[in-house]
Amino acid sequence: MSFDILSLVHSKPTYKLTRLEFLVLLSLKKKPLHGYAIMKKLTQKTPGIWKAKSGSLYPLLRRLVKKQFIDVEMKKGVKKYHLTDKGKDATEQYITAWKELYALFKEMNKP
């Protein structure tokens, strides 16, 4: 049985995202990136946790486009992905929820 850890927080996101979807959206928070740059960033920022591979990333990017969390723009023959307003909203909601969860765990670990 799976447990949704975000059910512990008051600031529950209104969008349902997998952890990987959230990480991809988070990687696009500052600026648009092409697929390879997203893979590189995720691999560097999550060392040993997730090794980004094109076989899993590109289908995920297509799903995020279909769900309208990201858009794709062609620039000089290169696809660049960027957050839509919905994607920005979802990312901020998840950041808020994870911060609240971190504060809860921190409080629970006080002596």
Please tell me the overall pLDDT: 89
CATH topology: Arc Repressor Mutant, subunit A
Structural class: mainly alpha
- Please state roughly what percent of the residues sit in beta strands, choosing from under 5%, 5-15%, 15-25%, 25-35%, 35-45% or over 45%: 5-15%
Q: Determine the CATH superfamily.
A: Winged helix-like DNA-binding domain superfamily/Winged helix DNA-binding domain
Morphology = globular
Count of helical regions: 4
Describe this structure in words.
With 111 residues, this protein is mainly alpha-helical. The chain has one domain (18-108): Orthogonal Bundle (Arc Repressor Mutant, subunit A). It has helices at residues 19-27, 35-45, 54-66, 85-108, and strands spanning 70-75, 78-83. It has a two-stranded antiparallel sheet with strand order 1-2. Strand 1 (70-75) and strand 2 form a beta hairpin. The N and C termini lie far apart (31 Å). The relative contact order is 0.20. The model has no long low-confidence stretch (mean pLDDT 89).
